[in-house]
Amino acid sequence: MEGFPILSLITFLPIVGMLIILFLPKEQQQAIRLTTLLITFIQIVLSVIMLMNFDYKASGIFDNSTFQFVEKFRWIEIPGISWLGTVKVDYFLGIDGLSMPMVLLTSIVTFIATLSSWNITKAVKGYFSLFLLLNTGMMGVFVALDFFLFYVFWEIMLLPMYFLIGIWGGPRKEYAAIKFFLYTLLGSIFMLLVMIGLYFSAKETLPDGARVFTFNLIELTNIANYSADGILAPMNPNNWRLVAYIALFIGFAIKVPMFPFHTWLPDAHVEAPTPISVILAGVLLKLGTYGMLRISFPIFPDITLQLAWYIGLFGMINIIYGAFCALAQKDFKKMIAYSSVSHMGYVLLGIASLSTTGINGAILQMFNHGTITAMLFLIVGVLYDRSHTRGIDDFGGIAIQMPIYTGFVTVAFFAAIGLPGLSGFISEALVFVGSFGSENIRILAMVSTLGILLGAAYMLWTLQRIFFGELNQKWNELKDLDWREYSMLIPLTLIILFLGIYPSAILDIMNSSVKSLVDFIITNANNFYITSL
Amino acid sequence: MAQVGLNHFLIVSALLFSFGLFAVVTRKNAVMVLMGIELILNASNINFIAFSKFGNFAIDGQVIALFVIVLAAAEAAIALAIVLNIYKVFSNVNVDEIDNLKE
Amino acid sequence: MNIYDIIFYLFAGITIISGFLVVSVKNIVHAAFYLLFTLFGIAGLYVLLGADFIAIVQIMVYVGGILILILFGVMLTNKIVDVEIKSESFQVIPAIIFIGILMGGLVFLMVTTNWENNELIIPLTTTKILGNIILTDYILIFELLGILLLIALIGAATIARKDKV
Amino acid sequence: MTETILINIALVILFLPLLGFAATINLGAKIKKMYYFEIFIITATLILTIIAAFFKLSDFVNTQIGSSFTWIAFDTVKIDLGIKIDNITVIMLFVVNLISFLVHLFSLEYMKGDKRFNRYFAYLGIFTFSMLGIVLTDNLLMMYIFWELVGLSSYLLIGFWFEKKSASDAGKKAFLTNRIGDIGMFLGILILFANYNTFNFDVIYSQINLGILPFDSTVWLTAAGILLFMGAVGKSAQFPLHVWLPDAMEGPTPVSALIHAATMVAAGVYLCLRLFVMLTSDAMLVIAVVGAFTSFLAATIALTQTDIKRVLAYSTVSQLGYMIMSIGIGAYAFAFFHLVTHAFFKACLFLGSGSVIHAMHHSQELEDLGGLRKKMPVTYLTFLISTLAISGIPLTSGFLSKDGILAGTLAFGELTGHWLIPILGFTVALLTAFYMFRLLILTFHGKPGNQEKYNHAHESKWVMAFPLVLLSMLSIFIFYTPNPISAESGWFLDKWISTPETVVPESTRFEFMKSSDSELVDANFVHSKLYEETMHHVHYPAMILSVLLGGIGILFAFLFYQWKKINVDKLTNSIRPLYNLSKNKWYLDEIYNATFINGTLALSKIISWFDQYIVDGIVNGTAKITKIYSTYIKWIDTYIVDGLVNLTAILSGIIGLALRKLQTGKVQTYIVYVILSLLILLIVFKPV
Fold first, then answer.
1. D44: distance to nearest CA of chain A, Å?
2. Which residue of D has its CA nearest to C91?
3. pLDDT tens-digit profile of D475-487?
4. Does the beta-carbon distance from A452 to D168 stay under 8 Å?
5. Residue A317: closest CA among chain D residues belongs to which residue?
6. ipTM here
7. pTM, 2 dp
């Protein structure tokens, strides 16, 4: 695998696909769909190849030499602007145990979402072009190791998402799309500010010995690279690190979405077409927490330690608040959307524990939530396609009419509830074990267990209202699943079952990275503390 | 009068440039205008070569001068062709009467 | 005053005087002949500046090419029978004022500017150097000029063609 | 037979039902007769269980066998899963598999013609698998995993007839109520894991034994014990979480027999047995009080219920309360003993009621029944034997176990002064005998309530009768001990079950459980000599009292319902409030509905409103303010900024008109302008 640019390939393959699609005539809808399917399938193959060549012992995080499949060369270089110094941006890709599961998740979810896009009939060409562009953006964020590049990919995602919701969405699509766009853009602005602040605070040493300002995420974690008067330098007694951290955190929290920045999510989900909801919930929400783990935590270990309790607090609020909101919803899709809010709370709680168990659990939860929620949205989509309504109370007794579908629904719902044997359980359990074990947020963890109960309550109540009881005669024409829906639901079910029984398949990938992240935060936070004294 | 140096050449070129411009501005006949332009181009060429000798441009100045000559040739050819066309249309080549650009 | 200076003033005088005559005489044919002298004078200045090859090119292209072309233009646009080929001037007074200001300004600029002045020893013959540099550093421009000339050739022929198809 | 073989057999026993489930659920839609596969699987499991139990109880009776593997490992965390086979395990295995087998058989006839027949058997399969997992596990995590899985299968089976709203409601209620208990249990597990970094029972106990306490405090140890007990409160339907079990009777009757009477609800008791050694005296007292109160509460409710299955359900709750109480007072062995005997006779009672319901075409109200003794002799006889057993009449298994528990409560009262517990215990014995015989008389004696249905009723087929006969046989003392009045000398208690030594620090033990008071007798550990002696000492008084109370209860039942010497209606009228209290289950459902359920729903509505109008309102408000702001900006823009621009335009127009004069249209003029301007620029920006 040495030297083969597999990360660039997996990232930019969708762009190639997009170009192919742009050259296809508009009428060739089937060819367009098949191209997209092929591209996403190749991505799965590539990520599996990556997984097979993945070194489970290499930790990454702050250690340049242990990143894998690294591609690095100068992308932008503007020499000699007087006060700026040499502006240089690297094209720097690489993965470690944090990003590998996310790359895997992205390729799986996009593949499933492609299948689910089959019944999009409006402007097929445009849809799939944007879809593939979105795909590149997501992949890019997970593999970029240069802040600038990260930011570029982050923004690339935004635009296609805006159009995908705004053109192919439901009745209030414009509102939802613009809300999503503005919200996320707000987050991006915060991120941009911090990015620039970091840039002028640290310098990296080039191989030829020159010292230049840097966007390199790995170099930014090294305290030795900061200049003493940098605005975000830890040893600067008047530094702005706390403010920067909060700004960055808000930027990521909007994506998570964290209370009180979550209100774009229900609207976006309800209005977005099914495949886009799948991607939104399956991948996009993970970007926020991934960003925290990749950027906030290693670069600001001191503040992270300082604010861990608040992160945990917001995690707890998310869990309980989201669950209560979900309980009150009358719209099936909105209910699932709020359940996402609740489930992402577990991720926040897990990372706030700053323990290997908690963070392992959090990343596993990110993966599991990706697959489970993807499945939940597909399920909503299946029902919506047939009945054109999403009101929970409009249904009743669907289990009689669609028994196999109900079987899949049961699996997905119980996975979301955290039933042992399905993947959701082990990640939630690890999050709780980790956060309870961390003395700092023990109380929060104890309160959060209420979420387990509420989660079961809203899920089962919905299950009952839609599927059980007498068959509502309005729906006695509904057909059970067709082959395409099987092909979407069965792989996800298998993944959910497999990870429920053998979670180590994902846990082993990230063990060493998570461990070194936690060690790094703990040791460095103390160092920083001493220097700032 | 001092030793002949850069300035002398530049002054010659400045005068030549002014004459050329004067021709361009005042003469009615398009061919005369063309001659004025030739003068202007030559004036600039003198500058190029003078700077080539006295400035920092080394041989490059001469090369540019060469290119200017070539351009001048091309320009003359095209310009005369245009003049012929104007003549065909207006039956004279007096530029002051050809003011369709106005209004 | 050494011999170099004398030769300079000689050529400069030829150039300026004949240049002035070019723009001041009424008869176009005369003006064209004065232009011939001007071009010769400039060629002499080139020689003084060590640009032997350019000087030759100046004579060959300008005198042999452009000047002939201009004469043809004069002939073609004035009836030959009309012996008195004259060209009138207009707006002479304002033009003189403008040009006077311009000339003054230019000379002022030329004289007062603090030019970098480090006189180079130009080699005796520049032809070989020019050839080298044109075909290496300036090859692109060279090629483009070639194309430009071709375009000019075709363009001139097309524009001047009698009947438009 | 070696230990390895035994372990392998145990694993096969565990996973066979899972195979049955997976095959039946997936192929059930295609293959009509798939349920035979499930029957085959359960039969094989039962045979293997009998083999395993036989060898364990003969060859390895005093050894504990176990095996584990690492499931998840990272950093310093290592999560092992494993099984542990001791005597309790194999006896439970036997009980679960036997009853499961009999219920499978019974269901063949009972569920005949149901459109989801295969799925029903598949659900039974996954239930059996999960229950066996609980029984076999050697650690808390796996216990929790299977704990949830039995919850799932219970949910699926209660809501099996999901077309009925009451059935799906009951399933949901069962699952959610259990979840409340599970949260407590989960927190308890978290406390232990956070301190000992393992889920394994034995490792945790050995750590506690070394004096390592959770967070270095006995309070946390007590808390852990009580929190874990909360899991049992949910699963074993103890007050205040008992409300789900009566509703769970919406499920098919064989399911009630298997899950909600014999096995799953006993899982809570089983958990407490596993936890017994780490319970502090405070935790034990809580457990004892909860158990005693539950058994009393349920018994009073059972007095007035008119649905045959509900009476049995409340009697189950009551008996489970007995077992829990028994653990709380330290009568470990009798708790387990009662679990086993109760499993058999209560399964028999439920299946008997199923037989009646089947015969009466799904009529289960007591007023429709009556006089079935002659129509259904086998059912009647087996029902009678089981009723005698649950009432604690000598020569039955129930007498032995119940008597032990009551003696334990007396001894406990004598040793600690908590007399409330024995008083409640004996009251319940009286009430149990009364309401059980009320049920028996109203069902089988007297006149038929519904003549038409009565005429069609007939004795059940052998697949339904055989389980009844077998289970009622197992309610006779001889299977447990040769001595009909004391179980202590029987193999069950003497050889197989012995009370383990508690590991909690001395300061947190009951006075009578101090280690100075224990000794080793015949390789069996006697955890408290004083307690044993006291129990012996009170044994005969307790026995006489309990038989007497049972007899009185039966007598009153006959007086009320058989001979009608006392007018029931008159009596109920005179104690109307008490009657209503009992009839309406102490209004607990209503109270819960009004407070917790409606409270939660109202809270969710409030929060949702808050979300929609406040949080999102702020967002939209910001947008609106921006919009308003922007209209003002637009005004400024139109009239001031744009005004300036327009002014500029007008000005430039005027200037342009003036300057137009300069425009001659002649190229030359323009050139002059250009060059002059250029010259000016050059002069102005001339470098020095």
1. 25
2. D669
3. 888 788 777 777 6
4. no
5. D607
6. 0.68
7. 0.78
